[in-house]
């Protein structure tokens, strides 16, 4: 099943064309990476898929429907790159608040909180105020809230940005492990190509609002005679793509 379908997507901001005919598709069960240089159009694409921005032109389907409908929104989690946290509530209270927004005061909400606490993995610190959390702890709670509601699609914009090596790896392990066990399809971005190789099954490489390459990491590495995805990225972006 196709979870995300983007076809000839164009997005203009005033006179500036941020997306210039983007096309790619994400299948159920994938961890799909949207990669590209700064300003390539990744966040703009994510915001359109999350129903926060309207496309100028093109076809965008999430779970077979236009983004923004209540049904799609209920089945999609979007974690923005700069997602903030509430300072004066605990991680636990935050997870409970999100779960109740999704499910109301139900048994389902309680189960989601249990899963969220497990994913966050903060032990007793989950009951401390979030203002005392490190950047990595805040991100763990944010990733937990995105996955715990078992969305069909989780859109994670640079989930490990600004984290140290250990914290980033832990977030990666969470994404990989829980995406599989909870049956969540993931669309994520990252500037760390080692990370993308580690966690993503397929990628689309976007630059200046266009997809220059799409495919399995291993196939792209082979196609470009490269040692790794970073080298593919460099060759594609410098060479202008296919
Ligand atoms: N609301 C907006 N108004 C005007 N221009 C915008 C707006 N949002 C994004 N842009 C522009 O669109 C282009 C794509 O931005 P976008 O944030 O999607 O890139 P990105 O690939 O996510 O970059 P980064 O890796 O730096 O986060 C950029 O040139 C950006 O300045």
Automatic annotation (TrEMBL):
PROSITE patterns, sorted: ABC_TRANSPORTER_1 (PS00211), ABC_TRANSPORTER_2 (PS50893)
GO molecular function, one term: ATP hydrolysis activity
InterPro entries: AAA+_ATPase, ABC_transporter-like_ATP-bd, ABC_transporter-like_CS, P-loop_NTPase
CDD domains recorded: ABC_DR_subfamily_A
Keywords annotated in UniProt: ATP-binding, Nucleotide-binding
Annotated ranges, domain ABC transporter: 4-233
SUPFAM superfamilies referenced in this protein's UniProt entry, alphabetically: P-loop containing nucleoside triphosphate hydrolases
Gene3D superfamilies: P-loop containing nucleotide triphosphate hydrolases
rRNA-binding in keyword set: no
Pfam family, one: ABC_tran
Stated name of the protein: ABC transporter ATP-binding protein
Organism: Infirmifilum lucidum
């Amino acid at each position: 099943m196709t979870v995300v379908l983007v076809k000839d997507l164009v997005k203009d901001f005033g006179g500036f064309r941020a997306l210039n005919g983007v096309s790619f598709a994400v299948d159920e069960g994938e961890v799909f990476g949207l990669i590209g240089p700064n300003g390539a159009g990744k966040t703009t694409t994510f915001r359109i898929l999350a129903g926060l921005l309207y496309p100028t032109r093109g076809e965008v389907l999430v779970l077979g429907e236009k983004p923004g409908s209540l049904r799609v929104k209920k089945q999609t989690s979007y974690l923005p790159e700069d997602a903030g946290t509430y300072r004066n509530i605990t991680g636990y209270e935050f997870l409970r608040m999100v779960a109740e927004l999704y499910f109301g005061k139900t048994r389902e909400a309680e189960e989601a909180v249990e899963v969220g606490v497990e994913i966050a993995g903060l032990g007793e610190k989950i009951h401390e105020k979030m203002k005392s959390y490190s950047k990595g702890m805040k991100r763990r709670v944010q990733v937990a809230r995105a996955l715990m509601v078992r969305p069909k699609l989780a859109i994670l914009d640079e989930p490990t940005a600004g984290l140290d090596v250990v914290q980033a790896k832990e977030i990666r392990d969470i994404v990989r492990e829980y995406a599989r066990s909870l049956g969540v399809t993931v669309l994520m971005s990252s500037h760390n190509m080692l990370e993308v190789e580690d966690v993503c099954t397929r990628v689309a490489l976007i630059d200046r609002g266009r997809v220059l390459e799409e495919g399995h990491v291993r196939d792209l590495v082979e196609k470009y005679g490269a040692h790794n995805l970073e080298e593919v990225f460099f060759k594609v972006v410098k060479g202008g793509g296919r």
